[in-house]
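User: We ran a pulldown and think these components assemble together. Before we commit to crystallization trials, I'd like a predicted model of the whole complex to look at. Sequences follow.
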Amino acid sequence: MTENPAKTIKKICLEHGNDKARLMDIAIDVQKELGYISKEAMKEIAAATGSHFVEVESLVTFYSFLTERPKGRIIIRLCNDIVDKMQGVDAVADAFTEELGMGFGQTSRDGLITLEYTPCIGMCDQAPAALINDEVFTHLSSDKARAIVKELKKHKDPAKISKKLGDGNNAHELVKSMVNNGIRKKGPVIFGEYEPGTGLKKALSMSPIEVIREIKAARLRGRGGAGFPTGMKWEFTRAADGEKRFTICNADEGEPGTFKDRVILTEKYDLLFEGMTIGGYAIGAEEGILYLRGEYAYLKKLLEKMIEERRKKGLLGKDVMGKKGFTFDIRVQLGAGAYVCGEETALISSCEGLRGDPKTRPPFPAQKGYMGYPTSVNNVETFCCVARIMEKGAAWFAEIGSKGSPSTKLLSVSGDCAGPGVYEFPFGVKVKDLLKAVGAEDAKAVLVGGPSGTLIGPGEYERTVCYDDLGTGGAVVVFGPERDLLQLVSYYMEFFIEESCGYCTPCRVGNVLLKERLDRIIAGKGEPEDLDYLESLGKTVKISSRCGLGQTSPNPILTTLKNFRADYESRVKKNEDGMQPSFDIKKALGDAQDITGRESVIF
Amino acid sequence: MSGKITFTIDGKEIEARQGQTILEAAEDAGIYIPKLCQMKGLVPHGSCRVCTVMVNGRPQAACTQPATDGMVVENDTPELKGMRRDIIDMLFVEGNHFCMFCDKSGNCELQAIAYRLGICAPKFPYLFPNRDLDASHPDIFIDRNRCVLCGRCVEASRDIDGKCVFEFVGRGPHKKIAVNAEAKLVDTDIDITDKAVNVCPVGAIIKKRVGYAVPIGERLYDKEPIGSDVENNKK
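Assistant: Here's a predicted model for the assembly, 838 residues in total across the polymer chains.
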């Protein structure tokens, strides 16, 4: 801890040019140095950057990883995603609380350790998992949890906890993490061999217009989930008025159950950076921003080092690969725990040093994006596809996959299956075949596309993963025969409530109301009318919400009501006395009975 | 570019100027689209979603969506009315609104829209949140129980008053309006004459000692339902 906080804060602000637009970086660094961002710290930051106190407070209170209250020097964030629950995270949680002698949300008396829960950290294939400061711990058990606490108490340094390093670059000296890549099936597009520079060289031999034409010919669509045609997005961005342009890589993979970008960032960063550079060339940008989710902070040093290497090789910087007049560089922008920042306009807000509220559209980012300049935001996997298209040609790319959905898709598979991990499948793969490949043929249900996607049962396993049928950003979560789907839906609703930015009414309030009624049904106090209530309210939230979060958050309820209605119907009943099942007359009369000292005559 | 656009709202053809939003064009044409967070003179916030309409079959907020030539807008349909009722219901149950003794009653836009949409009681369960009051300022009072997070005060303070008295903090259900001070409104540079003090659609930001100057029965929406000014095409 530093002795003079004000001096430390001034220094950090100065390192970021006292730039208000770098408030994210400043806040993250201040927290790293001082442990939390106090009201005094907010004042200091506001003064140094020329912003207002309440603006800094607004940012700090938005992100889960930033805190305005003192916390421990070490923060244990145990992931309690549904997959972690299925893999026994509750026992791990008990071990942590016993060993630390405190509950979740608390800090030890000596101010050393804080224990918290956090939603999906992108480690579903090796759950239960936790983040301890920036370090990732996977495959946790109660014994391991106890051992971790003992070690932490001894040397107070999460980085020094003994662990077996993971495969590939996870063992790199700049990463030193126990994460495993978990690559189960390699395909030609993402996991094929790649010689850095090949795709970029080809792109630079063409005009930007020709590059865009090639991407369009390959019919590349965004891999983040929405599936917007990449070439068209680039064309719009290129055509928009603006003194400069920006290309942003969305590496905020927050959809629970998705972790394919984690593997790309660890192993295929050359393909990614090359795609970004090609993107920059195509739209006419000089700057690229890689927005890295806070949960993946353990990869930041590696990525920055690899960017530096590319600079040295002339693959980034002034006159890239000797192409006169084409200057392009990349910086890494770290996030701080906010699912909504995966939404492209919220991500842009975050890059600008604001809370991660989605922006009003139109204007779209292609017209007015980062700092008001035309901006193209693309997914990690999309950029990899770009580099490959340049290397091998649009025809090669489009030949793989199904008719309407060319090429391959990385799928992150987790849950009740024999082989959790990352699979590169051609588009058009049947769910049935996918389940066979991952060892989950007895699955009761499969969630394709994460909680904002679709939950299907065995009757629909003939359906295919592609843009025209089951679209997905990459999450596939498998649920075995013994799972209670309503509990799972309730968990996901809780997730959306916590992750809503709160900007618009239907998402901020509607999700709370949906969960209230769902939990009523789970508790056995639901009535048949509640199913119509859920459907109607779910529809309101979907139709009237401002961004993709609220437009999809009722999906867990709506798709289970559609595909697993019996699970609901078996739990609701009409009350014979005509009162609402949720109404407990005895409890309601309790106080009055206490006061009068006698029981109700009627009830 | 001629600058003139024509499109339809519920089958009625209307004219708009280039750059107008659907809401602005509708109001000029005497068509009322229920709205809450939007206010003339402020950048549309698009947060309450009450003005959601269907544009060529897709939902859009009328206050932020630009009018384009030939678009087909649905406004007064049973589905949209139901959706708007849901949203107004949500705002009632999310906060603690006691209309009967709120001094904004009769001048309150939330209350007035509820009446106009025929809401007698919310169908959703009350959430009964614990929210703060701030009576520290000699002239101005904040009751967060009644705040609908419309953002008008944030924008008015920033864009019109050239200050930054208000901003949102927290997220999701924990989102709330905060002031530019460590604790209280009195520590900010707000002034009774600020635009930000005069834009609140509900009784969350109110001037002290003027609450009952206009008797109940003679207040704005006591006489005519909200939206009448638009429908009478008064400007």
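Chain B has six helices and ten strands. That may be worth checking against your pulldown data before setting up trials.

User: Thanks, that helps.
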